[in-house]
Amino acid sequence: MMSTARPARRFASRTAAKASAALVVLLAASGITSCSAPAQGSEGAQGDALKVTASTSVYGSLAQAVGGEDVAVESIISSPSQDPHSYEATARDKLTLSHAKLVVLNGGGYDDFAVQIVDSLSSKPAVIKAMEGEGHSHEGEHAEESSGEAAKESAQDDHAHEHAEGNEHVWYDLHQMQHLATKLKDGLSEADPDNAAGYSERAEQLTQKLKGLEERAHGLETKAKGASYVMTEPVPQALLDTAGLKNVTPKGLAESIEEGNEIAPLAMKSATESLEAGKVSVFAFNSQTADDQTNALKAAAQKGGVPVLDVTETLPEGQDYLSWMGKNIDALEEALDAAK
């Protein structure tokens, strides 16, 4: 059996949450509540600007787009080398969050380290979550050959609904990010009424740009007709679904990878054979959390001439959210053009 090179992400997430909780207790006991040092991912204006802290650079970028020069945004996770699922909060993170007037989170259990710290603060900032409730991964399942085409279509429809409701990787959902723009406008305006007009104007500008990106993704549906994808993790699933591709990831594969477990032999065999035979249109590969298993699947895709769509969970260096998503759509279109 093939061994994985990284620890279980869900287990690591629980471990990180425990570490964050321990840190909260330690800092509370020491009475530390503030610090002058900025967090690693600092953007925008400083001085008297409204202090906003985001769990990741994705939400830092979106908060900056709405806040403009009226906010000072700091992102706790800002490096593509960091895995948000297993991130362990530091004392500096708590001190950064304690300074914030507004905190922007993904929610859905994705960035619980920040939730725990905010909950521990005596003076709590306002919190905006892109996703309410608990998230969990969903992946498509191959319908049994005997079930008929109607059953296959029904399974896909059900899956699409479940994805929208349960996949915590909501920043790849361009429609949901439009709702977040409104939440950001409302939260910033409440925290800083004097600059409400500016927040409203910039939120509208962001919403229109997000709509443009969503229209671009929907515009790929013609090219994507009959196209399918296998994904290593459900990170880009919303974007792929928006573009009209069919999810043919074997049952249990993406979940096993996300949890850091070994893929079931039958699922691994099915995916490998489909990729090597070129039966899949696009292979969506989370390069930020690659391991032996996902690299083997990538090699199978390359052997079969299946275009590989590289995706990440946080912003690449030097990009903002809009440019990043635009490049993801460009890359998907190129992959569809190259697909057999």
TrEMBL record:
Residues 132-163 are annotated as: Disordered. PANTHER family: HIGH-AFFINITY ZINC UPTAKE SYSTEM PROTEIN ZNUA-RELATED (PTHR42953), METAL-BINDING PROTEIN HI_0362-RELATED (PTHR42953:SF1). GO terms for molecular function: metal ion binding. GO terms for biological process: metal ion transport. Pfam families: ZnuA (PF01297). Gene3D superfamilies: Nitrogenase molybdenum iron protein domain. Keywords: Coiled coil, Metal-binding, Signal, Transport. It comes from Galactobacter caseinivorans. It is found in: Cell envelope. One of its GO terms (cellular component) is cell envelope. Residues 1-39 form the signal peptide. This is ABC transporter substrate-binding protein. Residues 196-223 form a coiled coil. Its main location: other.
